[in-house]
Amino acid sequence: MAYYKSYGAAGEVTGSCHFLHIGKIRILIDCGMFQGAESEMNFEPFGFEPSDIDYLIVTHAHLDHIGRIPLLVKKGFDQKIISTRATYSIAQLMLRNSAGILETKPKPLYTLNDVDPALDLFGTFLECGQTMTLDENIKISFKNAGHILGSVSVKLEFFDEGIEKSIVFSGDIGQSERIITSPIEFWDKANYVFVESTYGLSIHEKLEISIDSFKEQILQTIGHGGTVVIPSFALERTQEILFLLKQMSEENLLTNIPVYLDSPLAINVTNTFMDYPELFSDDVKKIIQNGENPFDFKELIKTYSKAESMQINTKHGPKIIIAGSGMCEGGRVNYHLVRYLEDKANLALFVGYQVESTLGRKISTGNRDVSILGTPVNINAKVGYVSGFSAHADQKELLEWIDVIEDIYCVYLIHGDVPQLETLKGKIKKELQEKVHIVKIGEQIHL
Ligand SMILES: [Zn+2]
After folding, report:
1. Nearest of 313, 318, 342 to residue 222 by alpha carbon
2. Do 198 and 211 have their domain in common?
3. Which of 203, 214, 206 lies closest to 350 in space, CA to CA?
4. Which residues contact 309 (CB under 8 A, 6 or more apart)?
5. 370 and 357 in one domain?
6. Domain end: 385, 407, 431, which one?
7. Are residues 324 and 333 in contact, defined by beta-carbon separation less than 8 angstroms?
8. Ligand 1 centroid distance, CA of 147 (Å)
9. CA of 61 relative to ligand 1 center, distance in Å
10. Which CATH number characterizes residue 29's domain?
11. Are residues 323 and 338 in the same domain?
12. Distance 13 CA to ligand 1 centre (A)
């Protein structure tokens, strides 16, 4: 007997939590936080008994895939968590930071005290290309998902009443071309394929075009003496931005332009990235082999403390400020936006997707009057948006990822909003194969 049930990221993007019952073994794949409009769902019961779970497999360290692990442990889960080493290292930073933010809320989902018991259950490491056996019958293996550092897709192979079966979970899969992370790997065979659908109906701008646009917009602004504020996600996007700015620095395009990395979390994540040189793209590996740090350059100033952060405002003249949060929903970036958005010489440059109803979405879609930290701000600064840095595969790349897998019985679509899921389903049916199903939350699927 084997079946699957979804407890999150079915018909939506956040809250990834997938349950597998294979023989006597109960496995959870990811235990993420619901975010945005769905965040109240974090307070609902899991839908299963956490103490019944035998293994938790984690695909990567984004909060929508790991954010409820401390809660899972608090509610009774006490078994092994299987992940790559890099995912564990980054998860430590992300979960502690998340707990710090949650503690400031009137009704915290969990606190810092709940994080260490969860981190203690990590430590069963599996790297890409390796295989591990669970309970003598279930073989699991990872491949690089090319999404963020340490991210994987997962394959489970097992015998069910004498019949050999295999399941692949995509995790979040990256674009074929990434700036710093080594490229995505493909599975060649699986019977049941669970695939994310975040960009099931869209095609991204080409990465090269986005990189040129990013550099061009910065040069224009600093060339006229302006300040560039880049709201950036601490994990992966900030390191990509630093890598591109390093290129500009080496071309002497940033001479005498201070670049502030104003986010303790992003500084810590960047340091952690340097512990995993083997996981980078060839371009980044070459820089490291030459004894250089791919995320450091002479104009870069890391501002860890609040006092250092406030010092940035005393620096006159052109400068670049990278700060979180990526969607301007809190964090130091908001102080900078209040200070710099009213002057037309400046630029707010968005480098990642902005979820509906966030301040980042309001600003990046052209709202000129916004309220930030309770202050009304009239935006005269330029507002730029670079769309091609996405860490997710687009529709074409999702189809390519599925297309190379042989022996598929059915494709199951998860981790997407309804229009993306419906469009991707139609495309798969038309171009790849007849059996494709959009998973609903709580639906039990026999394998
Ligand atoms: Zn992700």
Report:
1. 318
2. no
3. 214
4. 262, 303, 332, 335
5. yes
6. 385
7. yes
8. 7
9. 7
10. 3.60.15.10
11. yes
12. 10
Q: CB count, 10 Å around CB of 441?
A: 17
In this prediction, residue 162 carries a pLDDT of: 92
Ligand 1 mean position, distance from CA 127 (Å): 18
Locate 43 and state its tokens: 């307070």
Q: Mean pLDDT per segment of 10 residues, for the chain of length 447 residues?
A: 93 92 97 88 96 98 97 98 98 97 93 98 97 96 97 97 96 94 96 96 93 98 98 96 98 98 98 97 96 98 97 95 94 96 98 87 95 96 95 96 97 94 96 96 94
Q: How far is the CA of 68 from the centre of ligand 1 (A)?
A: 14
Q: Are 395 and 200 spatial neighbours (Cβ–Cβ below 8 Å)?
A: yes
How far does residue 66's CA lie from ligand 1's centre (Å)? 10
Count structural domains, the chain.
2
The verdict on 212 and 192 lying in the same domain is no
CA–centroid distance, 200 to ligand 1, in Å, is 15
Residue 120 and residue 229 share a domain: no
Could you tell me the distance, in angstroms and rounded to a whole number, from the CA of residue 423 to the centre of ligand 1?
21
Question: What secondary structure, in 3-state letters, does the chain show?
Answer: CEEEEECCCCCCCCCCCEEEEECCEEEEECCCCCCHHHHHHHHCCCCCCHHHCCEEECCCCCHHHHCCHHHHHHCCCCCEEEECHHHHHHHHHHHHHHHHHHCCCCCCCCCHHHHHHHHCCCCEECCCCCEEEECCCEEEEEEECCCCCCCEEEEEEEEECCEEEEEEECCCCCCCCCCCECCCCCCCECCEEEEECCCCCCCCCCHHHHHHHHHHHHHHHHHCCCEEEEECCCCCHHHHHHHHHHHHHHCCCCCCCCEEECCHHHHHHHHHHCCCHHHECHHHHHHHHCCCCCCCCCCEEECCCHHHHHHHHHCCCCEEEEECCCCCCCCCHHHHHHHHCCCCCCEEEECCCCCCCCHHHHHHCCCCEEEECCEEEECCCEEEECCCCCCCCCHHHHHHHHHCCECCCEEEEECCCHHHHHHHHHHHHHHCCCCEEECCCCCEEEC
Q: Which of 332, 356, 385 is the last residue of a domain?
A: 385
| CATH number where 237 lies | 3.40.50.10890
Closest CA to 295 of 268, 317, 313: 268
Does the model's pTM come out above 0.70?
yes
Q: Which two tokens stand for residue 245?
A: 């700015």
Q: Answer yes or no: do 149 and 247 share one domain.
A: no
Q: Which domain holds residue 260?
A: 207-385
